[in-house]
Specification:
Radius of gyration: 21 Å
Distance between the termini: 15 Å
Number of helices: 15
Strand content: 15-25%
Order of helices and strands: EHEHEHEHEHHEHEEHEHEHEHEHEHHH
Length: 385
């Protein structure tokens, strides 16, 4: 229906500079694509994104279609839902105006915006690539149970989007299998790791700190288990020191533990670049995750941990995607998610702090932001006619 005005549209509610890793990756993807194609970015921003890009000498040749962002993670659920609906409408209007031939859309926000992209592409004869960095409504349902009727409706909507995508991108073999099983899609599914900032690993002998947890202290990260195990370990005379950084619903509980023990530090929320430096100072990094959610998502902090050279202490079931990832890449050890096992694991680490872990050069390359951007550009541009 009509001649396309734009070659590629990138749809993602979070973009550079607010999203410091994925947002940077999407910006690099857009900049690379703009060298050969007309490109627009459909997103939200707190300030004038086009002016900020120009000021920083970034985004040359990229058309920005950014609506105002009004909410934060601390906003009420009703306000966040309202803003998601507003962004959905903004996305459709922007697509109709830009008339892209190929659209990249991810699960930010999930389900409804990818569906809007699918509808646009069906109406206007365009193609889209669907990037599932988590699978909804299943992932959301673990945190906040969704009404059964609404759950089935959202699944049906997302299945439609999956079946009509030119290509699908996701994180793990487990997620790929679940997508295929749930939607019965015949679209090709590609695996792409979430990227992280490149860091120069500090030699293990020069690292001055013990164990760090860096990221969202949410309901899926087994924070209550971690905190009670750390408390018991310290009461039994454990000598390791623990560092926490990041926000989330369990932030007050972490602060309470830090107030009670000198061996526990809590930094609160810190920028991604500071987080990468903080992990690089530690010998071990905690990667706790709810077993069920590994079917539908994968902890983004894993890439940063691996690149830092810190040993990864995964706290999860032995048959999860996270456990298999740790063993496959030899990045650390896996501890069963129970109190006694975790306390014993802390003592075992204390008695063997000289252990060293490093990802392969090939894996290191695949976790770079530049590799992430290149792969997105290749997948999205390959179908342009």
């Amino acid at each position: 229906m009509g001649k396309k005005k734009t070659d590629i549209a990138i749809v993602n509610r979070s973009f550079w500079p607010k999203s410091q890793v994925i947002g940077e990756g999407l910006l690099q993807f857009a900049e690379q694509a703009a060298q050969h194609h007309s490109v627009c970015v459909i997103t939200q921003a707190e300030n004038d994104l086009a002016a900020l890009l120009a000021k920083e000498g970034r985004g040359e040749g990229i058309q920005i279609r950014a609506c105002k962002a009004y909410t934060t993670s601390a906003s009420s659920l009703v306000k966040r839902i309202a803003e998601a609906v507003f962004f959905m409408l903004w996305t459709f209007i922007s697509l109709v105006r830009a008339k892209p031939a190929s659209v990249y859309v991810s699960t930010n926000p999930p389900v409804v915006v990818p569906f809007i992209v699918a509808l646009y592409c069906r109406l206007f004869g365009a193609q889209y690539i669907y990037h599932l960095q988590d699978i909804h409504p299943e992932a959301a349902n673990i945190v906040v149970p969704v009404n059964k009727l609404l759950f089935r409706l959202l699944q049906a909507i997302d299945n439609y989007t999956l079946r009509h995508a030119s290509a699908i991108i996701t994180l793990t073999e487990d997620m790929k299998a679940y997508i295929q099983q749930r939607s019965n899609t015949s679209s090709p599914i590609h695996l792409l790791d979430n990227p992280s900032f490149e860091v120069t690993p500090v030699p293990m002998a020069q690292r001055t700190k013990d164990i760090v947890f860096c990221g969202n202290a949410g309901r899926l990260q087994r924070i209550p288990l971690l905190l009670t195990a750390i408390q018991d370990y310290l009461k039994q005379g454990g000598k390791l020191c623990f560092t926490f950084a990041g926000g989330g619903v369990h932030a007050p509980d972490i602060q309470t533990l830090a107030n009670s023990y000198e061996q526990v530090q809590y930094h609160g929320f810190i920028p991604a670049t500071e987080a990468a430096d903080l992990v690089n100072q530690h010998k071990w990094a905690l990667l706790p995750i709810d077993d069920e959610v590994t079917k539908y998502a994968f902890p983004s902090k894993s890439s940063g941990y691996a690149l830092s050279g810190a040993g990864v202490l995964a706290v999860c079931g032995q048959n999860t995607a996270v456990a298999r990832w740790v063993r496959k890449h030899e990045t650390g050890i896996v501890c069963d998610a129970n109190h006694a096992a975790l306390v014993d694991c802390f003592f075992s680490i204390e008695n063997n702090m000289s252990a060293s872990y490093a990802v392969s050069p090939e894996m290191k390359d695949k976790l770079q932001i530049s590799y992430f951007a290149q792969q997105l550009y290749h997948l999205v541009s390959s179908g342009l006619r």
